[in-house]
Amino acid sequence: MSKASPQPVSQPQAPTSDATAIASAETILKIFTVPEAPNSTLGQIEQKLSQDLAGFLRDNIVALEKPLSDIEADFNDHSIPTRPRFVSDYVDDIMHTLVAQSVHTASPSFIGHMTSALPHFVLPLSKIMVALNQNLVKIETSKAFTPLERQVLGMMHHLVYQQAPQFYAEFQHQADTALGAFCSGGTLANITALWIARNNLLKAQGEFKGVSRHGLAKALRHYGFDDIAILVSERSHYSLGKAADLLGIGRDNIISIATDCHNKVDVAQMRAKAQELQVRNIRVMAIVGVAGTTETGNIDDLTALATLAKELHCHFHVDAAWGGATLLSSQYRHLLRGIELADSVTIDAHKQMYVPMGAGMVLFKDPTACSAIVHHAEYILRKGSKDLGSQTLEGSRPGMALQVHACLQIIGQQGYEILINRSINNARAFAEKIANHPDFELTSAPELCLLTYRYVPALVKHALAHAKIHNDDASLEQLNSLLDDLCQHMQKTQREMGKSFVSRTRIPLASFTQAKSALRKSVVFRVVLANPLTTLDILDAVLIEQAHIAANELDIMPQLLALSQRTIAANSCSK
Length: 575
Prior knowledge:
By secondary structure, the protein is an alpha/beta fold. It folds into three domains: 25-104; 131-168 and 177-410, Type I PLP-dependent aspartate aminotransferase-like (Major domain) (Aspartate Aminotransferase, domain 2), CATH 3.40.640; 415-573, Aspartate Aminotransferase, domain 1 (Alpha-Beta Complex). It has 20 helices and eleven strands.
């Protein structure tokens, strides 16, 4: 089933036949045993596939145009094929239906999400992972991969907590302790942190065997609480709601606290809410600080939150999925001051550590914290072993730690500093371009490499200023509503044109009178400048393309400009 491909893989075309092979024990076993020598059929297919993927990764186009409905038709057959297919035919098919229609996340003009260009060495290293197929749940199925994973967790723990060498000599490879846990992403990392917080708060006491044995209802009765709650920023990640749901705490007990004009949680309001909950006999289980909000990249006052957590005797977790890698920069590490006070920290290596998707981590300040969630199974996870599977939410896991290990070793702290400094400096330079542009408005200044902005023609800016001065909420609402429609249209059009991509979100803006500004959210463009290949020239081209789209918009733009003229005239007459 490794018939030579009739067409070059680098030029994918729709398959003209459904060539299949007759299944036999010999042909099926062959796909497991044939050595992939360079001159073998499978070796040739692999070489062509690598060449085609390399071309795909160099392409600056975000995606080839094809309606999603047509792509769905390519994957519409629900029946498992009866007969095997030749590998070469399958590769030709998948290059046409899958690779050619995938998103070019490595493109330097793809600046709307966390995905970025990857170091090329991760591609061959991924073959080690796949070929060895290790399962990190158990040393019996991973052996050297488990010590390697523990080393990576030790490196990341030291990056955050900066403990002395003897600390790591004692705990990095010790059974029944863990400096952290690998997860598939920030969501599971956050869930794991709050799982530990819940179990430690409602731990075994006397005849009560703990919440993990008796459940939440009995735990609340035992400790005399009417309920428990988690205090978070209104900019916190939606995964915290999932955690509350799964842990039986309830989404309504994720208490969101307002943020200031810099998108940082208001610690005074959080303290007041904690006092209110205490009066109602609701115990604060955890406080979650954000080190890099998903929408704007801002960082809470982590030191102040740590102080409040200490006052409340509760768990302090920092979600640094976005911003954690900034600790690798000596120039910008200070932005995360106070993170070392956290009981647990989430970091995603697949964000700005340039690791392929699926590499999240949660780190524990106390190496014994994981004992609150330890599970054993006699056939695989025995007491006293150094298996990490007993201390993780997930069971079977691939060896993604290898990719993180490789990047830490090959790029190094100095290399990461160059990359992180470059991304933050690019964000600041782009923010300055936007702020100085007559037809754009910066809506959140970058702290990390994220920022938001929107298109506001100069005439509309003038009209907004007039309406705000005269407390003309009706005109402000109409103008901003049209701006929302325009920005949404621009973002969709730019995405469909396929040359570049920015994402969009909704955030509160100061474009209203004080009474309305905290209530209304406006549509804004959102960019993430983590890709090392993104240049200022590319960013200039993004703005030029957006301005061109707006200038050719024949429905919303005329309405917006006419309303702006009427607003200016009306408010000028009311002086």
